[in-house]
């Protein structure tokens, strides 16, 4: 007796999460592309007139409230976008090499960006204090608040991502062979240029130097958007 087996058709399952993963990585890429633009805008609109003292800084914020709000708002949302976008960076790693390193760096830099984004609320407080009390008293109040242990911790974690965050992300991705090492030249060049450009162009020089420093985010963001 012969048993006839019914023909079977092999069906390759399509992961249900693939469209969602593509959407999230693309959204992360867009966030990383937009973040440097907002950052440059925030740096370019820093209120003028600071004389290097705490009282002078508070006075400069209080003198132009609309400019203070614009600058702080752009800076705040630039770091919010970075904090969200950098979490998508591990999706660029194809193999096992560097996957853990990229993940740790992405989470750490996201945390630091959250810290600095919240700290920008202090600009609005400083502006309000500077308009409510005399200059020296306003400076003393602001200095007392910013030297507290909590705010000092937030500030230093924010400085970490501000000065080294993009470079660390590039190093981790380059180690994982997901981007080229030459991208590291941009943070180095941007940091060096900020020693010269501000003297020549003022706030525009700061914005330009910062834009060069975070330039790798445009490349990383574009790679995430194209990720399939």
From TrEMBL:
Domain of life (superkingdom): Bacteria
Entry annotated with the keyword Oxidoreductase: no
Record field: transmembrane: 23-46, 66-89, 101-121, 154-174, 181-200, 206-225
Transmembrane helix keyword on record: yes
Sorted UniProt keywords: Membrane, Transmembrane, Transmembrane helix
Protein name in UniProt: DUF4386 family protein
Organism whose genome encodes this protein: Actinomycetospora termitidis
């Amino acid at each position: 007796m012969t048993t006839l087996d019914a023909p079977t058709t092999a069906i390759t399952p399509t992961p249900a999460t693939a469209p969602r993963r593509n959407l999230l990585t693309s959204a992360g890429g867009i966030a990383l592309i937009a973040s440097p633009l907002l950052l440059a805008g925030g740096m370019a609109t820093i209120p003028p007139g600071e004389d290097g003292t705490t009282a002078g800084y508070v006075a400069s914020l209080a003198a132009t409230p609309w400019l203070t709000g614009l600058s702080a708002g752009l800076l705040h949302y630039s770091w919010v976008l970075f904090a969200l976008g950098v979490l998508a960076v591990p999706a660029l790693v194809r193999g096992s090499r560097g996957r853990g390193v990229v993940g740790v760096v992405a989470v750490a830099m996201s945390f630091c960006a959250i810290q600095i984004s919240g700290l920008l609320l202090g600009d609005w407080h400083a502006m309000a204090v500077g308009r409510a009390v005399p200059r020296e008293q306003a400076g003393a109040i602001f200095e007392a608040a910013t030297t507290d242990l909590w705010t000092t911790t937030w500030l230093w974690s924010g400085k970490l991502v501000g000065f080294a965050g993009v470079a660390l992300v590039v190093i981790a991705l380059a180690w994982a062979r997901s981007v080229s090492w030459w991208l590291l030249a941009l943070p180095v060049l941007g940091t060096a240029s900020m020693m010269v450009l501000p003297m020549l162009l003022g706030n525009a020089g700061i914005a330009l130097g910062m834009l060069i420093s975070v330039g790798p985010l445009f490349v990383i963001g574009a790679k995430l958007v194209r990720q399939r």
